Structures are given as structure tokens and as C-alpha cells.
Amino acid sequence: MGLSFSNDAEVRVALMGRFSVSIHGHEVHQWRAGKARNLFQYLVINRERVVPKDKLYDTLWPRSDWSPGSSSLKVAVHALRRILDEAAGAESSVRIIHQDFGYVLRADQIWVDVEEFEARVDEGRSAAQAGDREAATGAYAGAMELYQGGFLVGESGDWIEEQREWCKALALPALAWLADESFARSDLNEIIRWCRRTLDIDPYNERAYQLMIMAHGEQGNLGSARRWYGICATRLREDFDVEPSEFTQQVYRRILRRQRPAVSA
Question: Which of 21, 199, 239, 250 is the most buried (most CB within 10 A)?
Fold first, then answer.
């Protein structure tokens, strides 16, 4: 079942997967040239915190020789303010404020998918620690509904890579929980679903391969079990010069024995 993610927010920002900003239900398309778009992305992630000008220059122009008197940041801020005001049809409730030798983004009615994602993961972790497995599963599933391909897919930058790795680090334990819960219920399709998503993030996760091989084998799909074992072995061998763990090999051998047709004496 789909989840509701604050549809009443005036401003909605998607940073997971394809970047988008909607104001009053209308997506912002005219970002113009320059760094206004990247400035907005960075200030949203650091929302309500003053980011010093030097930090913004280092982040947005990391390989440029800029001087203290450079106007590039002012130009980007001016462009961003105009974009937000034009998109809102009036003065936007999203405000870019100059404060304490830096800038801060303030907004009253804003929803950001990364913040919701982190909140759902925290909710799942708390529920799991409290022993409420059903609530933990629901929260983690909600988090993964928001995780659409990772942080700012297709965009680059040191700060983006850092945030992307942080999101991955939150997603993987959530996926492990969901896969293990599916295993406990013997829900083979859900095991495959969550393990496939795990391998999209971490293609060397042997636990995910083990569950994938087992689930396909239990479904009687020996060909898929063989292929997933082959993918696991090839990736580990080519990228790390190691073989699958003994336990992974045992899981695979057990599936092969179980699927082998009986032969009469």
C-alpha cells in the first residue's frame, strides 16, 4: 500500500533519484544557467543552518581559483531568489537569507524526501529496539519507498557523493531487516524483491545473494538460482580475487541437491 508523504506542503523537494522542486503543485523547470540549482540543493540539505560563504565557494566551485571579492556566489543567490519568487507567483515562503557571513535557507511549509527517508529509518530503528517488529517493518518499507535510485542520481560533486554514501548506509540495514522479515514469513517474492534492491546498492552483499539463491531454489527456479550464484562468484572473483564464502557455497549446493530429480535404482 502506498504511503502519504505530506501532500499539503507548499514546497516539495525530491533529492532521491531525479531532482525536482514543486511549489503549490507546479514543478520548477526554469533553473537557468549557473549554480542556482546546485546552490538550492546544498542549502536544502543544510536547511535552517547558516553556511559560510567560503564553504559554499569550496562546495560549488571546488576546482576554481576564486578570490574573496568574487561575485559568483552573489549572482547564484540572486538567480535562485528570482527562480523561487517566479515559481511561487509571489514572494516565495522559501527564503535565502544572508546572515553571519553566510547564507541560510528558511522555509515554513517544505517537505524534503531525504528528511522523510531519514525519519522513517529512525522510526524503524526505534521500533525494532522496542521489539515492535510490525511497526519496524512498516517504517523501513516506507523509507525504501522513498529511496528511488539514490541521492541526486546522475549528478556529481564531493558533497553529493558524501550524502549518497550516507543514504546508502541508512538504506542497507533497512533492506536487511525487510529481507530477514520476509524470510521469517517464507515470503519468497518479497525476499527476492528486497535482496534485488540490496544488490542495486551493494553488489557484493553475500547475505543478499544467499537469500536470492535460496528463494529462487524454493520456487523451483533452478536456472535463476544458478545465475545469481554465478553473478556473485564473478563479481567477487573479478573485483576482489576471492571466492564466495563457504556458507554461500553450501546454500548453493543444498539448492542443487534439493532440485535434482530422483533417479530410480
Answer: 21
